[in-house]
Amino acid sequence: MVIDSPRSIVTTEGFRAGSHGRATRTLHIAMIGTRGVPACYGGFETAVEEIGRRLVERGHEITVYTRGSESREREYLGMKIVHLPAVPVKQLETLSHTGLSAVHAVLRRRPDAAFVFNAANSPFLPVLRARGIPTALHMDGLEWKRSKWGRRGKAYYRWAEEFGVRTADALIADAPGIGEYYDREFGVPTELIRYGAPILESAPADGIRAFDLAPHGYHLVVARFEPENHVLEIVEGYRASSATKPLVVVGSAPYAAEYTERIRAAAGDDPRIRFLGGVYDQDLLDALYFHALSYVHGHSVGGTNPSLLRAMGAGTATLAYDVGFNHETLDEHGLFFADAAELTRGVEALDRDAALAGTLGLHGRDRAATAFRWDDVATAYEDLAGRLARRQSMHQLGRRARRRASAARSGE
């Protein structure tokens, strides 16, 4: 099997998702499509920082394309930083920045491999590949299911998924369910590469005491206010409960004012429900996770969720939305809810049984410490970059792929 490369004809025999071949030379790797580093926003940015700094320590050259950072430093933790602007509009910010980043990568010294994050950025893969830059696309979750996107936005994400499948040299899935989705929909392999979990053995309690909270004395929610994160059902279920420990809600929704109002209306005047808004102090956020009696996780669309991993790494019992991604991440060491009524029962069980919460929390931390290690994640990226640099690719298979008719009719 061969693909036509701008530089040569290269074989793809033996290319299989997950068949690792460690890099045997120093590689120049570009990371494109996120807000970049220092990480202060979300899962992609944390991944880039954690992976990038480890690859630098292993002798590789890492270039990270960054937007919106207050710092204008050209190096961070050994990574080279390229600051480029973006159009400050929700629908265009990511695409405009990724487009400029791709052009920059093409016009400068050619990287040995590029990692592009977010399936929405797939239109720029041909630009990179035309320059002979082998490219892996991180597919993220099923973004087209998110309610914040209108009809056109959802249609774009569906199209971008398929275009990414047909143009990438490799596809990265962060959870088995995501890999199964691309196998079912398109019949193509993916690289299963997780996120890592920070393991917390301790955290100062001063920050939470400033909010009049006590260790193991509250239930925690950390989420953007979006319907697929089920914050409304969590608040409704908690308000209907007999729980005595407060529910602390961290998060906001810059594009969902109506949904935010519904959440606050559901909370009413219940003094047990406390809204803290966005918390961007990582030490304080760690303390909130570490000292919570339970973490309530309503996310239903993404794959392996960084917020869930952070709670697991903090040793905090989890009450999670009943979807396959969460069951697999927790390895069933949690309680689960599908609606507000089940949330009520779950939070009451944890509220009155500290021993149950402690047991679930310890199981979660053990799972995080063994299955979600950043060193292992960095090794997987290093292995994939090495294979891409050696011109191993799934492009010949992917270029013929189309969304299967049965899946398209199902609307999954």
Q: Could you characterize the architecture of this molecule?
A:
The chain has 412 residues and is an alpha/beta fold. It contains 16 helices and 16 strands. An eight-stranded mixed sheet has the order 5-6-4-3-7-8-9-10, sandwiched between helices. Strands 13-12-11-14-15-16 form a six-stranded parallel sheet, with helices on both faces. Strands 1-2 form a two-stranded antiparallel ribbon. Helix 1 packs across helix 14 (374-389), helix 7 packs parallel to helix 8 (257-267) and helix 7 (231-239) packs across helix 12 (340-352).
Q: Report the major sheet.
A: 8 strands, mixed
User: Which structural class do the helices and strands define?
Assistant: alpha/beta
Q: What radius of gyration results from the CA coordinates? A: 22 Å
Number of strands: 16
The separation of the N and C termini measures 31 Å
Oligomer designation: single chain
Helix content: 40-55%
Give the rounded overall mean pLDDT: 90
What global shape is seen? globular
**Total helical segments:** 16
β content, as a range? 15-25%
The unreliable regions are 1-21, 406-412
Main-sheet strand order equals 5-6-4-3-7-8-9-10
Lay out the secondary structure.
Layout: E1 2-4, E2 9-11, E3 28-32, H1 43-57, E4 61-66, E5 75-76, E6 79-83, H2 93-107, E7 113-117, H3 125-130, E8 135-138, H4 151-167, E9 170-173, H5 176-186, E10 191-192, H6 206-209, E11 219-222, H7 231-239, E12 247-250, H8 257-267, E13 273-277, H9 282-291, E14 294-297, H10 306-313, E15 317-321, H11 324-330, E16 335-337, H12 340-352, H13 354-371, H14 374-389, H15 395-398, H16 405-410
Parallel strand pairs: 3-4, 3-7, 4-6, 7-8, 8-9, 9-10, 11-12, 11-14, 12-13, 14-15, 15-16
Antiparallel strand pairs: 1-2, 5-6
Helix pairs in contact: 1-14, 7-8, 7-12, 10-13
